[in-house]
């Protein structure tokens, strides 16, 4: 056989081998789904990053992000086994324990809950305790039943008479300088600046003692028992995705976010990333030396005790069933930080 023909055949065989290897790799990838708790946004960026830059694929995963929203029921989909992971939170998982539903937090992407209270800049509100002076606090029902009860138990002056329902519009707050409203650190203050032309006072509850984790990776006990390797790979890849999103090129991830949520803007995304970094939402506490996603019994118990004190949970509840530390706090991805 002439050398040219031999080389041609050899090249074809190499190409075929590569194609077959690629096909085998694709077939071998474990298909998993992750349900978010709201419409796509920068607060979900690390998960989108791991899809966009191939990190999940590198870990042998074919991941579908199931977007949340006002009409979504992703937590119910997790319970029913329709999705594999969910963006939960400790309150939901401890409540599930009390109901006998085996949901488990396996990573805590947000070390701090981004919940804030927002006040006017010229109302004499300089520190968190000053919010008790205001006549009105616009709060959602969940906030009224949880962190407002915590506020009343831990600070003087807060009272039920201040409460008014929050209708997810800043208009009532903007019209009343003697009021404050709830919000998310990374979103409502930005919208208020756009609409009102002033920078509001922002008070992060987490920096004043309110301690829940947020933006968890939550799964079922069945998933942990039957596919621990898949759980570990999903956690590791998601953590790496978050380091890439915060410190690498996140352009493609943001494109995916805007594709899922066309109302999302580049300005909002940039603001959200900046605030997550400024306030240590993702990197603070245990995650600083043990890696993004770290969760500990001590932190989880602190929140449980806070909620027991205001009668949200029963003191006899076995809160430790709501989480496991076996998949995190290993320094995963820390070398990617620039």
TrEMBL record:
GO terms for biological process: thiamine biosynthetic process. Residues 42-243 form the SsuA/THI5-like domain. Pfam families: NMT1. It comes from Rhizobium vallis. This is ABC transporter substrate-binding protein. SUPFAM superfamilies: Periplasmic binding protein-like II. Residues 1-28 form the signal peptide. Keywords: Signal. The keyword Signal applies.
